[in-house]
Amino acid sequence: MNALTRFFARLEGPQTIGRGPGFWIGFLVVLTGACLYPQFSDGYTVGNTVYFFTWVFMALGLSLIWGYGGALSFGQTAFFGIAGYSYGILTINFGAAYGFTLVAVVLAVAIAALFAVLLGYFLFFGRISGVFLGIVTLSVTLVLERFMAQTAGPEWRIGSARLNGFNGMSNMPPLTIPWPGGDIVLFPDVQLYYVVLGLLVLVYLLLRILVNSSFGNVLVAIRENPERAEMLGYDIRKYQLGAFVIGAALAGLSGVLYTTWGQYITPSSMGMTAAALPIVWVAVGGRSDITSTLIGTLVVLSAFQALTIHGSQYALVVMGILLVLTVLIAPRGLILSGASRIGRLFGKRGDA
Amino acid sequence: MDVGTLAFSALYQFGDAFAFLVLSACGLAVIFGMMGVINLAHGEFIMCGAYVTVSVAHTGLPLPLAIACGAIVSAMVGALVELIVIRHLYERPLDTIVATWGLSLIATQGTLILLGSTMAGVGTPFGSFQMGGYSYSLYRLVLFFMALAVLAGLYALFNWTRFGVMARATIQVPHMAAALGVDTRLVYSLTFALGAGLAGLTGGLYAPTMTLVPTMGTTFIMEAFVTVVVGGADVFLGTAPAAAVLAVVKSVMTSWQGQLFGQIGLLVTVIIVIRVLPKGISGFLLRERA
């Protein structure tokens, strides 16, 4: 029991909203609902929910870098694309046997993280901050998109994987779990749902522990005042690089899951519009709290899809308006502002 | 091919790249230098200028006049955007970037809905000339001289006019300028409109050379970003030398490996430059001078 309380204590802290038995009972109710949900729904809808879930990892990573660390990383989709393409190249070349797809997931995320280390070293150790950080990361993303878009020719191949330029790569194998008596192939249906849901809960809880640890507190201190954090003896470059790499790895995880979900990845998933969407999700929900980011991302994504179905071309305009209005009216994010208002209403302690 | 022709060809490509970088970046740099804000809708102001220019040119007006219309309309749209959105965010420069990104989404998709996926362009004027067996577009030379003219015009505006004095005072110490009776809000509005107008001018100037699509802004925006990052906050000590340096990189890489490698070369240069000179060329020059 003591170990359990200690575990819960590490999940709570000044950097996350939601604490105490009430919140965790609510969390368990939602989790139970999420676990039971496929029983009451059809395969297509469940597959579609998995699609939403795949994006949440990227949003959580952006929340860590931008919301907690205060660094504008506008290039999350670059890592998304790198990991997605890496997964495609690896699995098309080496197949799905012996659980290689799982190895490919790890490798693809590692490749994205490695790219982030390289880029982040130049950015943070060059002490790029604020505005410039945003536009350099965005430029990297735009160039990467253009690079992938021109790989249509047959000379652009890695092993037996054609990059296919603007049309993108397809037909990579889906995630496959080796199992005695026949591998389990995770098509975008109930099986993949449980795997992704499990990953999501794991990442969410680990991020809660991370942001409430001393690392997270230093990160917030850097966001609030970099000079002060430095005067207190912290090497802010290392902390920012650390957050950047973790965020990039999460974006990479999104990319891999997206690729396995649709067995498909294109350069436009890295472009200007694609890069703007995570910003919308995270800003609208509330970037400086991972719970708000998580809920906000799912809400905005489902609203976006509903709009796409009913008035496809207006969906992006609505996203743009939503972003501008959020920045003007509720700069902390709609859910975070709402949550703090409710928190005040009930007179709970803390600033949440 | 003799040395003279080769030198001319290299110079021509340098001029072309230089003009593109200066014109792409000047509007962004004016706004950034003044307010420390990066306008992510910069590409969409360029797109606006190009669309207006082509629409006006289709009615039969001469191209220079159409380009002027494009610049003026963009400046007016810029003033409007400043009034509705940017004005409320001066205390929060980082949020301004996010808001302008939202505007960029609205503008790109809005144009697509209203005007369709493409628009009939106008042909490139002036034709071409021959030099050593190669043919060169005369319009590219015009663009080069326009880039120089824009730089000269901005220099004159900021140094020799009343607006320029007030703007420079506002850049240096906004509160002091306000205390001395400068309407800093008006200065900010005018600067934003100026930046948007310059973007519109760029759009108008390049409209005859490219296809008009709602996403055409992204063609310019990466070059504009790169030039402003390398240049730093000052238009004359930053943007112009940065464009000159980057134009060498871009033209060499482009003629060696093609358009895309020109851009990759730019990006790599930027990442190396910010590692060495975090405040850009102008930050370096101003530190040396101080």
TrEMBL record, chain A:
Stored InterPro entries: ABC_transp_permease (IPR001851), LivM-like (IPR043428)
Record's keyword annotation contains Lipid metabolism: no
Regions that span the bilayer: 21-40, 52-71, 78-96, 102-124, 131-149, 192-220, 241-258, 264-283, 290-308, 314-335
Pfam families noted in UniProt: BPD_transp_2
Subcellular location: Cell membrane
Membrane protein topology class: Multi-pass membrane protein
Record's keyword terms, sorted: Cell membrane, Membrane, Transmembrane, Transmembrane helix
Cytoplasm listed as a keyword: no
Listed name of the protein: ABC transporter permease
TrEMBL record, chain B:
Pfam families, per database record: BPD_transp_2
First-listed, main subcellular location of the protein, grouped into a coarse class: membrane
Compartments where located: Cell membrane
Keyword Cell membrane applies: yes
Transmembrane segments: 18-41, 61-86, 98-118, 138-158, 186-208, 220-248, 260-277
Alphabetically ordered keywords of this record: Amino-acid transport, Cell membrane, Membrane, Transmembrane, Transmembrane helix, Transport
Keyword Transmembrane helix attached: yes
Topology class, membrane: Multi-pass membrane protein
InterPro entries xref list: ABC_transp_permease (IPR001851), BCAA_transport_permease (IPR052157)
Family, per entry: Belongs to the binding-protein-dependent transport system permease family. LivHM subfamily.
Protein's name according to its UniProt entry: Branched-chain amino acid ABC transporter permease
Organism field: Ancylobacter radicis
